[in-house]
Write a structure and sequence with these properties.
Strand content: 15-25%
Order of helices and strands: HHEEEEHEHEEEHHEHEHEHEEE
Number of helices: 9
Organism: Streptomyces shenzhenensis
Helix content: 25-40%
Distance between the termini: 13 Å
Number of strands: 14
Strand order of the largest sheet: 9-11-8-12-10-13-14
CATH architecture of the largest domain: Alpha-Beta Complex
Number of domains: 2
Pfam families: AIRS, AIRS_C
CATH superfamily of the largest domain: PurM-like C-terminal domain
Family: Belongs to the HypE family.
Radius of gyration: 19 Å
Structural class: alpha+beta
InterPro entries: HypE, PurM-like_C_dom, PurM-like_C_sf, PurM-like_N, PurM-like_N_sf
GO biological process, one term: protein maturation
Shape: globular
Length: 329
């Protein structure tokens, strides 16, 4: 299970098994989406599979995730998603009503995101082999001229901005799965981020890198960027927005909210001269109303993420080994 968690084990699986088998320059970038040139235009292309359990949770469903997860991967390349494919793997015995609810949620999410489901596939597996249903979506979108988002562009002095409070999605799914109650309902942040990214790029196309901190949470995304850029990252713990209910739930469960998955947040590395204007544009958008500056890229300790604690010390924020909460997307 740890190999599917978006942490060190996932990275080793890609590096040791998939990358040598597949090869190719596009895959070598290791982005949320591949950046490709085709017929004189730049495309972003991404695929993702969704195995969340349960299928429905506060704030969304596997259908919402299937759209928003792929749309957001494209958005992290600066692309506005245009078309999706959709593959359903159904378990023998799953009720048609359940399939219909998921399909309706997926269609509604696609319309909200402004993307068209253009093609698809259906397969059925024997009872006991599918856990209800799984969904795969792939997407393509155009990258505007002048946009170049990748870790290699990060330099010391870049400002780190997160688009809002972290940790809600993973805790929302876990609370339903395990029947936990925390005195207040915790709702997933599942949302399509294309509009927010467009608002940021309207300020300046010179953003350096974007990531949506899904599996492995904020910690995994920051470590991936630090490793890919060869810079260090310093964040201030108290500046990272964490909803009180999520913080309380994580304390009860023994989790660190920095490692809990999100499905409607992004982290951006922005040149310092543009940071205030980008932050203002983010806060003017509904999905970035609580955006905050949480740190910066530094020349010291390249490839490492550290956090300044409330007690005045520092701690290393490691790449997660596997996943604290499996099957959350």
């Amino acid at each position: 299970m740890g190999h599917g968690g978006g942490g060190t084990l996932s990275a080793e699986l890609v590096e040791q098994v998939f990358a040598p088998a597949f090869g190719g320059a596009a895959l070598a970038e290791r982005g949320d989406a591949a950046t490709l040139r085709l017929g004189g235009v730049r495309l972003a292309f991404s695929t993702d599979s969704f195995v969340v359990r349960p299928l429905f949770f506060p704030g969304g469903s596997i259908g919402d995730l299937a759209v928003n997860g792929t749309v957001n991967d494209l958005a992290m390349s600066g692309a506005r998603a245009a078309y999706l494919s959709c593959g359903f793997i159904l378990e023998e015995g799953v009720e048609i009503e359940t399939v219909s609810r998921v399909a309706e949620a997926l269609g509604a999410a696609a319309r909200t995101a402004g993307v068209e489901v253009a093609t698809g596939d259906t397969k059925v597996v024997e009872s006991g082999h599918g856990d209800g249903l799984f969904v795969n979506t792939s997407g393509i979108g155009l990258i505007p001229a002048g946009v170049d988002l990748r870790p290699a562009r990060v330099v010391p002095g870049d400002v780190v901005i997160v688009s809002g409070p972290v940790g809600a999605h993973g805790v929302a799914v876990m609370s339903v799965r395990e029947g936990l109650e925390f005195g207040v309902e915790i709702v997933s942040d599942c949302a399509a981020l294309g509009g927010l990214v467009a608002a940021m790029l309207a300020v300046t196309p010179d953003l350096h890198v974007l990531r949506d901190p899904t599996r492995g949470g904020l910690a995994a995304s920051l470590n991936e960027i630090a490793t890919g850029s060869g810079t260090g990252v310093v964040i201030t713990e108290r500046e990272v927005p964490v909803p009180p209910a999520v913080a309380s739930a994580c304390a009860v469960l023994g989790l660190d909210p920095f490692y809990v998955a999100n499905e409607g947040k992004l982290v951006a590395f922005v040149p310092r001269e543009h940071a205030d204007a980008v932050l203002e544009a983010m806060r003017a958008h509904p999905l970035g109303a609580q955006a905050a500056i949480i740190g910066e890229a530094v020349a010291e300790h390249p490839g490492m993420v550290v956090a300044r604690t409330g007690l005045g010390g520092t701690r290393v924020v490691d790449m997660p080994l596997g996943e604290q909460l499996p099957r959350i997307c």
